[in-house]
Amino acid sequence: MTVWCMNLKDNRGGPKQNRDKELKFRLCLEKSMVAIGWAIPDTVNTWEEYRKKAKEIWAGNEGYLTAATNLQDMKKGDLVWVRNPTGRTLYLVEIIDDVPGIYSSLKEFDICGYRKGEFYLVGEEQLTDELRDGNLRARGTLERMHEDTRGDIRIATVKLFHALKAQANPVRTPVKKEKGP
After folding, report:
1. pLDDT at residue 70 greater than cutoff 60
2. Over residues 59-88, mean pLDDT
3. Could you tell me the pLDDT band of residue 174, with boundaries at 50, 70 and 90?
4. What does DSSP say about strands 3-6 and 79-83: parallel, antiparallel, or unpaired?
5. Please, what's the b/e burial string for 12-36 (b: 16 or more CB within 10 A of its CB; e: otherwise)?
6. Higher-confidence residue: 18 or 70?
7. Which end of the chain is more exposed for a tag (fewer CB within 10 A), N or C?
């Protein structure tokens, strides 16, 4: 089981960026998915079609390459830390599919490739010292927590996940818009 950190926010900048800073996050929560951007103008139906065309469009973009590779490397059962970008609410997401999917119809929201997931709300009181807020942030869109540098965080995450799963209380309904700090 691999543990990841992911930023679910629109980073496009300029006029294409959504003014609602938590829109991408809310759409992902409502559709039970974690998603990357880097959309392409063509409509595609599979991850393979997307990667072939995106490789040409986003050639040389390290952010795209890292995010797409990491999304593809996720496995069913992996865990992903995500947060509401305008607040402090944390979720732990269990990946429940075997391969990435594509949402060509959500390009305007900076959503393209995705993985299906079950969201579990994490309360502040459930966070241990290892799971401090700063430890659960990705430096880019999607980052793997490596055993040699973040092993204690990975162990604490898995322990917390088993406790959340035992409560059998995944988030299944949309959340209200959260006010920022």
Report:
1. yes
2. 93
3. very low
4. parallel
5. eeeeeeeeeebbbbbbbbebbbbbb
6. 70
7. C
pTM: 0.87
CB 37 within 8 A of CB 110: yes
Handedness of CA 55, 60, 64, 70 (dihedral sign): positive
User: Where would I find the beta strands (DSSP E) of 53-168?
Assistant: 79-83, 90-95, 101-102, 113-122, 142-144
Q: 111, exposed or middle or buried, with CB in 10 Å at 0-12, 13-18, 19+?
A: buried
**135 conformational bin, left if phi > 0, alpha if psi -120 to 50, beta if neither:** alpha
Return d(Cα 34, Cα 138) in angstroms, integer: 14
Q: In which residue are the tokens 């496009």 written?
A: 12
| Percent of the chain residues past pLDDT 90, beyond the cut | 46
| Residue 93: C-alpha distances to residues 19, 51, 106, 142, 165 (Å) | 25, 24, 21, 13, 11
Name every residue whose Cβ is closer than 8 Å to that of residue 159 and which is 6 or more positions away in sequence. Answer: none
